[in-house]
Amino acid sequence: MTDYRAPVADMRFVLDHVAGLPGIAALPGYEEATGDLVDAVLQEAGRLAGEVVGPLNRRGDEEGAVLENGVVRTPAGFREAYWKFVEGGWNSVPFDPGIGGQGLPWALNTAVSEMWGAANTSWALCPMLTVGAIEAIGAHGTEEQKATYLPKLVTGEWTGTMNLTEPHAGSDVGALRTKAVRDGGRFRIHGQKIFITFGDQDYTENVVHLVLARIEGGPPGVKGISLFLVPKVLVNDDGSLGPRNDVRPVSLEHKLGIHGSPTCVMAYGENDGAVGYLIGEENNGMACMFTMMNNARLNVGVAGLATAERAWQQARAFAMERTQGRDIATGEQNVPIVRHPDVRRMLMDMKAKTEAMRALCYYTAGRMDVARRHPDAEVRDEAQGELDLLIPVVKAWCTDTGCDVAFTGVQVHGGMGFIEETGAAQHMRDARIHPIYEGTNGIQANDLMGRKILRDGGEAAFGFIAGMAADAAGIAASGNPDVAATGRALSLSAKALGQATDWMLATGPADICKASAHAVPYLTLFGNTAGGWLMGNAAAAAAAEGANGANGGGSAWCGAKIKTARFYADHVLSRSGGLLASIADSGDTVMALAEDQF
Q1: Residue 296 domain flag
Q2: Is residue 504 a part of any domain in this protein?
């Protein structure tokens, strides 16, 4: 397995020219995000990721996490790396200084989060879940809950989890059976949760679980679900730790990948009941949890990007070093396989898709910053609407594409990709969980179709598409032929997405099953187009920088950026017409067979 090196130059370029970091840094509260500070953050995070976290990736896969006598043991080195992360203040980067955070933009934190995930997917899942817990408690917790739990969570001295899934329910959260029994001003939680990432670990003294449960006598289905804060160790009034709560891991799942991450089956209340504290209002747990889940969905999309970046670096290094075959252009024998056109095609595919994912993730995080900090309420609302539209796209499209890139990485290695020692197979295995996390990608597609398209008559989507089309016209007018070609391809893709949106609006109200059957290709078309839009904007910016001798005089770097965007246009945006046809012109074949015909 090759070493991980953070692509700091591309990260900084995308933050500046796609996410709009210079404008974000002018927002109230973000004034500290100067260019020098951003450079320092990226360089130092890249050092920690590359030198400390990354080398543990293979070890985590081979050793895995284990449960011994009721205690979770993480792979050797994971705990030490986590405490270097905590001591460096990395968990606190995007949070409010009032609770111990550094108050830096979410867009910058997204780049840093990519580094942790690319260095070591399993290790990075623990701080990723803690971020969501902080968001949920900060938005819906009582002042006492915030004062007790947020400071320790923000520093990373304690970690957080999300507990939704139960053995019989899966994604049908409304079918949960975990119950909450009133006990004075608190509750006693009884039930079992599965698939709890870092449900326990040997890093910290406490773990703060956010648990969905139904208060006894509450309404059935999702309308009767409440959210509870259930600490592993109870906290005394003075903030010191008290007795162990009645919650414990009873087993660890044996998984396809992410072996270094303990995925726990958690038992609540096997004795007197686990003490839990209501977060938000009774029977409003799903709304509270979605504060955490939407953040988690963005972060899972970033995880898809991160695994793709690691797989791309692995494949690139192998292709440069592996010698085999004849150069068909020169006749030279035993050449590096990067000289073979089909290997070059695969590497370009991996590079272009990874850069498109990075652009979409960083752009979306930038919209989050604007939605939270812009002084104009109308601008905040506009940014929030775009953020809501893009969250399911980022989560689903980036994780599907991340799997695609990791799969291609194995193919670049040939037979050696199927052998564990190269590391290519681990990236593919680790990536596969991301399309399942935090609502499967089919759920994300239906969310995009139902809540984001049909609910507002396509207003948000059409506004977004119109913006892409306007930019495409400007990109197509570029004097650089590759940039112009990218703009023309983007124009056609935006048009196809608009037509697919029209079809969804015409079909959904009359036949929701038919619309749902085509929701996934619709989301793919949306993601491909949005990625192409941002790649086109990046190419235009690179053309301007290259002409000005910017980026350290890196005209070659800028040229590569432009060519990569052109490849994306030629090989990804060119598929938009086919996706439109599969949505709007296909027969009703998805639901055509009777159940006994399968």
Answers
A1: no
A2: yes
